[in-house]
Design goal:
Elements lengths: L2 E5 L2 E4 L4 E8 L6 E8 L6 E6 L5 E3 L7 E6 L4 E6 L8 E9 L11 E2 L3 E6 L1
């Protein structure tokens, strides 16, 4: 049983910050590559940021310079620090995990959390 549980979502004004967390259990955390993905009604799900087993990160162009993905292997937890939030960042954010090498592609992630809502007001 692999479980991922997100927390930290909420409502914030444009320009504000939020920190999302994702607790992962069920397999050795250090073997996972991880990612954050988001989906707003009427839009396709899109990758936001990924991080591999060596801590190397990739970001969507729309969030570069504003978001930071990180992992704490001692706590089995994935994070997404979101700064300078914009209304276009409003979405349901989900974390996901896969074993082995990292990936940008949603279909390669078999394990998903339930999602946490982020709403950014003008």
């Amino acid at each position: 049983l692999v479980q991922l549980v997100e927390s930290g979502g909420g409502s914030v004004q444009a320009g504000g910050s939020l920190r999302l967390s994702c607790a992962v259990s069920g397999h050795p955390f250090t073997t996972y590559s991880l990612g954050w993905f988001r989906q707003d009604p009427g839009k396709e799900r899109e990758p936001v940021a990924t991080i591999d087993t060596d801590g190397r990160a990739n970001y969507a162009d729309s969030v570069k310079g504003r978001f930071t993905i990180s992992r704490d292997n001692a706590k089995d937890t994935l994070y997404l620090q979101m700064n300078t939030l914009k209304p276009d960042d409003t979405a349901m954010y989900s974390c996901a995990a896969k074993q082995g090498v990292g990936s940008w592609w949603i279909y390669e992630y078999p394990y998903w959390g339930q999602g946490t809502q982020v709403t950014v007001s003008s």
